[in-house]
Amino acid sequence: MDRSGPPQGGKTAATADRSRSWREGGLTYAYILLYIALSSSQIFFNKWVLSSKQINFPYPVGLTLLHMLFSSVLCFILTKVFKVIKIDGGVTPDIYATSVVPIGAMFAMTLWLGNSAYLYISVAFAQMLKATMPVAVFLLGAAAGLEAMSCRMFLIMLVISVGVVVASYGEVSISWVGVVYQMGGVIGEALRLVFMEIFVKKKGVRLNSISMMYYVSPCSALCLFVPWIFLEKPKMDSSGPWNFPPVLLFLNCLCTFVLNLSVFLVISHTSALTIRVAGVVRDWVVVLLSALLFSDTKLTLINLLGYGIAIAGVVAYNNHKLRKEALRMSSEVRVDINNAEKSPDQEVQIALLPPKEDK
Fold this sequence. Notes:
The protein is mainly α. The chain has helices at about 10-50, 60-80, 95-115, 125-130, 135-145, 150-170, 175-200, 210-240, 245-270, 270-295, 300-340, 345-350.
């Protein structure tokens, strides 16, 4: 009778798989926490640079232009000089002109208007207004034929809208100029996401975050250069010699690029939906921390109640999109299985069938 236990090799393999799984899971959560920390910090960093009297740099277009120029140069160095990251191909001149340029223009618009809003409204209120993003994305997507209206989606959009209205009603000192800037940034971001979906679905091109920044950043920089020349450069010249802190601005640009890199890491280890869920957590962190860090942020109970309602709608929206994506993926898997199960004899018979004669 064999009294020996299970093979030691099996135990070793199982232990190795378990430790590898734990290690990969821990690494994924580390990337998510890194993204939440970096994105929250970058929002506060931008607010501080633009509104601080000590730094004296109230130029949102100029700051965004620096971000895009820095990103363009660094992406070129990483991909073409050191070749650390491989750029995805498939972007022809025609695709660049018809898809990348609109995406770059909307990205520039989003960053410009979003940063401009920080000059007029608090960080917390800006995040509350950003909760309307799913509403804008859905309405513009429906207009472009990418989304279908349903009672469920209408209810989700209604919940988000009511939540934002309640949060706005609870705002102590509201600046309508800042609201217009922030909502303009929301519309710009929604248009960018719609253009991205068209870029992927209709053009058939898929790019990772770094590849997208490589193509989009120069275009966005060019789009920002024009308004900077006419709107902000005269103000910068009239205020005397340019005496801005170069080290601080360099760090701000570097943090922005590292944030984009963290998005690439999170998506490559999880999914794009994880970024959305992490974004919801990030928004709550920003809203609560801004009340402690900035004197212009005064949260009321109505603020938090309205924002909680809006976030509930955003979570429902993300859950709806997740189920829709899961159904699409399962249908694609079924099609692949059916194609794989087709016997070689059937394929040969189909190939040898004579063409039908026209009568």
